[in-house]
Amino acid sequence: MEKISFGRTKKGEEATLYVLENKNHTTVKVTDYGATLVAFVFTDKNGKRRDVVLGYDDVTGYEEHGSYFGATVGRNGNRIANSQMVINGKVWKIEANEKGNNLHSGKNGFNSRMWKVAKSSDTSITFSHYSPQEEQGFPGNMDVEVTYTITENDTVEISYQAKADADTVMNFTNHTYFNLGGQDSGVITGQKLQILADAFTPVKDSTCIPTGEIVPVEGTPMDFRTMKPIGQDIDADFEQLKFTGGYDHNYVLSDKTGEMRVMANAYCEETGIAMEASTDCCGVQLYAGNFIGAQKGKNGVTYGDRNGFCLESQFYPNAVNQENFPSPVVKAGELYTSKTTYRLYLK
Ligand code: GLA
Description:
With 347 residues, this protein is mostly beta strands. The chain is built from three helices and 29 strands. Strands 11-12-13-14-29-23-22-17-20 form a nine-stranded antiparallel beta sheet. The protein starts with a strand and ends with a strand.
């Protein structure tokens, strides 16, 4: 496997970019900083190589920006209301880093850690991290691994496994921003998306904390059961979309975890690149990149709002505090596993 220097962190740690490639020359690049997916390169219908994910040229970009491009997010992806939870009768307080709530586990999230390489081959790499109880404030010391694999059918598979010495939250996600027109092609609002979910979890207000209800998408702009352009209804006069400035909602894929299913399909007409995304998680956050802002990305490209869309497989937001949502708490000593895949093909 090719290894490329990816610069030094502010603390002076050396970051490396690892290149995974299959026989079709579909390439996945990942770095040990944040166990982050940096590039996903595929040949489009005109024979042109397209990198379909947003990212930065070196580790400094990842350290300096708060968009979570390609990041491994944990221990808890998405939000925890009031930055606290009760587990086995004890209150645990974690960092309040967004409007009094916790987003993506705060500033010591997995996305900002240097991970170790536990195993690697030409097509697969496993990163490992030891997360002590003090790191983010969740109960228990945790060992966690994330494996990226590029398969022969141009799928990037992301598998997680973790074990802790206390009952604790395990809700890992990958925060890749996809742009099937290529990372330099501007807004994604014309790209088409289907999400195989009949319901979503509405939010209370602009904090993005769920009300706890599970509401059918039918008859609302939230409905992606039939493929439609992401931008078709994104600015509709619909309270849920006003709260969040465009799609930033959890879709209900199932009421349980553990069964692999297709969660979404996406397509860009200009490049002919299509994507099928699958997961064994019970929910997926559609985030339409509403607040990317103007920033410098890979190869000098300037990104802006809605230049990428995320399909973050997850437990529903604030699930640890919401009794009617599937629980993200895993028992001490129990092995937690989960898998999400993104397959590219031409249509
Ligand atoms: C998630 C959230 C969004 C936003 C991004 C990071 O997708 O749901 O609201 O915070 O992460 O910018």
